[in-house]
Design goal:
homodimer, alpha/beta, DNA-binding
DNA sequence: TCTTGAAATGTAACCGGTTCCATTAAAGGC
DNA sequence: GCCTTTAATGGAACCGGTTACATTTCAAGA
């Protein structure tokens, strides 16, 4: 029944209720010093006029948006979802809303980094797996808008990180300790415009193998497009080598699952003939009894959100680097090498 | 180097550049009537002071947020991602930003429906797969904020829908035409607080079977939690029946893939011994050569976003219902029944 | 009864932009 | 050279809230 935008404002309410706009505002923000009778009268008027305060005006007046933004790539990947849940859990009980900005291509990242602090209307920012350049980091740290990095780091900012190098070591060490010496590493492309976690894990893998006196075998390192399907193809290649590996360290659970998919097709029993270890501990890993490195994804979301809230709450916080824990979860896809 | 929020405003710029704030505003919005010399002087000052206009103030002044919101459940599912891409494609070339609100549980839906029109700051809304109640629909249609429904419908609103009943018929009809009579339907829970697409597809399936004179066999209908993993379990149950089906219609590609996963384990060849048809045509379906019903997910996003932009552009549009097309894609997982 | 102070309310400035309208400066017409 | 137009610019109101401060109300204390 409404015609063209006859928006009711706080002044309309004030007029109808026969009070001042200040009083209406007080009622809306349930300030304590409004007489009960007045309060009721104002509420009645608000209902009657079907009045809704304009959030934009409010934001301008109080100088805050009560919104925090999160920029992250690959929103569809299970590991990112897991972190997101951690963030949401914390924010749900705060006064802040969460707005998600998805980055699929590097250009988007730069566009967001450039604009968000200005064009977007957020009080704080979480940036996941997207390492800023020095210049961008400077912008963030000198900006009015506090920023917390999750899963990437920069000396000028607050960061929540996992030690991917150590994670790579842990996975490789587990396989070595089981007696394996033909250990392959199956991964996303190591060179990426996003956070090079896979590269660190790779370095950890190389390190442990070297320590164990296992010569580097380039054929055992295979990289390719992310995703379960592609992992299958890569796994097939590895397992068809003349001298196939007896263990595969996949840089993500999703890829490890791809390996589990194809092994039966090739008549390879897991874990008897092939040990497989993943990384992340996503829900599907539990279901498939996949041995993996739990990198506390959920917790990284929780910690990041909490840190941002602290800063927004006024806590003075210098740049820092906070680690989430790593845990080797031994399940059913790894076993001692049979001679 | 900055201390506590010494935010530079348009007035600071005006003062430094020795012009009026009106002129600065004109420069910012590159209005035509500013002399070239003045324009340069103002830009120089803007750079010098490192000034960034406050978007909130601008929004308040112009009365628009230049943001559109999308509410959708299961943001992690491939089918929803596909729609989202369609939306983003259209919005990318518009002046609007997209903000995503994810709904995982029904309560969130109601909270968003209640608040968004008021608390949130968007110019328009897209609602995906979340049918509003009559009351909510009334609120939307009488609200200042135009709303378009995608994948659900209501007589009072603009809707983009797919004919799930017909889709169910198409899938079932395909199998019947291939000679199958033992046709199972594997699905998410039919009762859902979200859009009951699966129920419509189910109805279509029942209808076609009845027309073909195939008696209803309750054992052949199995419902359960969504997801590939759960689909495997359900598929196993179906295929272990005393008189197993020769064809399975899965209500989503993800579930169909689950069926493809387990069939080999049970020694069942596809499509020779078992025909499988999915629904959605997600990217993985292409890769796995899955026969499926393409419900133009991407296109539904495109159409929905376009319609919303039209309305925001001033087009008067009465409630309507626009269908996206359905196509049976015959690939390699369905085949004639062998006697 | 008159103070006095707390409680309740009102006034008006402010947040940081946009834009209508008035004013001034420059250019064109005769 | 003067008047009319047009181009540039400035002044100030406005968007719709919040809030510091001033003012009024009213009950308690002297």
């Amino acid at each position: 029944m409404k015609n063209t935008t006859p928006t009711t404002t706080i002044r309309d309410v004030a007029k109808h209720a026969n009070v001042s706009i200040a009083t209406v505002s007080r009622v809306l923000n349930d300030s304590s010093d409004v007489k009960e009778g007045t309060r009721e009268k104002v509420w009645a008027t608000i209902e009657e006029l079907n009045y809704t305060p304009n959030p934009i005006a409010r934001q301008l007046a109080i100088g805050r948006t009560l919104t925090i933004g999160i920029i992250q790539p690959y929103i569809t990947l299970p590991s990112y979802i897991e972190r997101l849940r951690g963030v949401q859990q914390i924010l749900a009980s705060s006064e802040y809303d969460l707005v998600i900005f998805n980055v699929d291509i590097p250009e988007q990242k730069d566009a967001y980094f450039r604009d968000l602090s200005r064009k977007m209307r957020v009080d704080g920012m979480l940036i996941v797996s997207l390492p800023p350049t020095d210049e961008q980091a400077d912008n963030f740290s000198s900006s009015r808008i506090p920023t917390v990095l999750i899963d990437s780091d920069h000396p000028k900012l607050c960061c929540i990180v996992a030690d991917d190098l150590e994670g790579g070591r842990m996975a490789a060490r587990h396989l070595v300790e089981l007696g394996h010496r033909k250990i392959a590493y199956l991964t996303d492309y190591l060179e990426t415009p996003f956070h090079p976690a896979m590269k660190f894990r790779y370095a950890g893998y190389r390190e442990v193998l070297e320590e164990a006196g296992i010569p580097y075998q380039p054929d055992y390192v295979i990289e390719g497009e992310r995703g379960r399907i592609n992992a299958r193809v890569m796994a097939k290649r590895l397992l068809s080598l003349d001298d196939p590996p007896t263990a595969i360290f996949a840089s993500s659970d999703t890829q490890a699952l791809g390996v589990l998919d194809v092994a039966p097709e090739l008549g390879i029993k897991i874990p008897e003939r092939l040990s497989v270890i993943g990384y992340d501990n996503i829900p599907d890993a539990v279901y498939n009894n996949l041995t993996t490195i739990d990198q506390s994804l959920h917790d990284s979301g929780v910690k990041g959100a909490q840190m941002l809230l602290d800063v927004l709450g006024g806590l003075k916080m210098p740049p820092c680097k906070k680690y989430v824990s790593l845990n080797l979860l031994k399940r059913k896809t790894t076993a001692p090498l049979l001679y």
